[in-house]
């Protein structure tokens, strides 16, 4: 079993990671590749002709041309890029442009994309089949690894996405407490299930209104919202809804409003208030799990919730999610208990394999020190470049997770985040893309580094940022 890795330490040794292999530009398309932007090489003309053509086709095939909205570049404008391949910290689009990638498939790629060991393990597993629909040993192995790493988890249930994990944990919290109301925080995202799609910014303790057509009012009427980092707002909600709150769910460090950290004592206060009121505390660690530290945000901040959701990293790039917590709560889940939840592909051997090998790599000494060092270099470099070029800018990072805003700050919640100059971010974004740097195409998404990101990647990114920041 994995030993728990402390965040304390000075070792800045880089655990071994895959070398970035040379890639050939993609082959098929009727449109000629004009040029290739190669990071580090002299810059040539940047073109997205093939992406443009393919995206135009995609728009007739899939809503908005994509299978997840943010990928359409709506908030940054311009042309979305279609990816051909990934390796290490880099990716290549179908026009042959190369990028340093700070999205990491939205989090899973913490040891770098297409890691050789993970690919080899997947190939071996695949020889035995891709899905069994029956228990397998790999599920035990990953479950043991998760349980030994994450302080709150004594039992775990694997599902196929973060959304599914959050849906499951919500039903479980309601089943265990016999209560229906939940508190979520403005700007936190817990997947696209109805109950979580509640308009942010409504008044404290106001009953939630659906954030999307198609969500029945009844589905969100039990969802109450508070601003992140606002203890008094949470106390007020409990005061006016005595004995009715099943759970508080939150991202312990927010990644879905940009990157926002909890104020000192915020998590402790939320933990205390939920206990005093007989409500469960749920950390949604789909993003922060195995990222802020091996034991997630709960280990990093030293606060143990009742229940936890995971996703992304524990599937090593394959579809996965999980929820877990105290044994007495988890034993309510079917078939051990009466709370029903199931899944055709849950615990499938490929996702389990990629997860196991990703976590094994993360256990090597120096992992989180390296992520913290490289991310610090990146964020401090970009903020310094911003200040040097006369922009209001602030930002932060923990381990391999970061964000920055075009505002003086500080940013404590979603309303603060919305003060960021979105037009400037869009210009910055498109400029960086042309310089061969791929950030998340939205101001309201965190960035991610990986063990494959080198100091050279970071220095090139900072140089590109300074160049772009001078122009915008
Ligand atoms: C904190 C958090 N919870 C839940 C989800 C939903 O996960 P998925 O996209 O795998 O459904 C996400 C997705 O980014 C997330 O960041």
From TrEMBL:
One of its GO terms (cellular component) is chloroplast. The keyword DNA-binding does not apply. One of its GO terms (biological process) is porphyrin-containing compound biosynthetic process. The keyword Isomerase applies. InterPro entries: 4pyrrol_synth_GluAld_NH2Trfase, Aminotrans_3, Aminotrans_3_PPA_site, PyrdxlP-dep_Trfase, PyrdxlP-dep_Trfase_major, PyrdxlP-dep_Trfase_small. GO terms for molecular function: glutamate-1-semialdehyde 2,1-aminomutase activity; pyridoxal phosphate binding; transaminase activity. Pfam families: Aminotran_3 (PF00202). It catalyses: (S)-4-amino-5-oxopentanoate = 5-aminolevulinate. Pathway: Porphyrin-containing compound metabolism; protoporphyrin-IX biosynthesis; 5-aminolevulinate from L-glutamyl-tRNA(Glu): step 2/2; Porphyrin-containing compound metabolism; chlorophyll biosynthesis. Its cofactor is pyridoxal 5'-phosphate. Keywords: Isomerase, Porphyrin biosynthesis, Pyridoxal phosphate. Its EC number is 5.4.3.8. Homodimer. Belongs to the class-III pyridoxal-phosphate-dependent aminotransferase family. HemL subfamily. This is glutamate-1-semialdehyde 2,1-aminomutase.
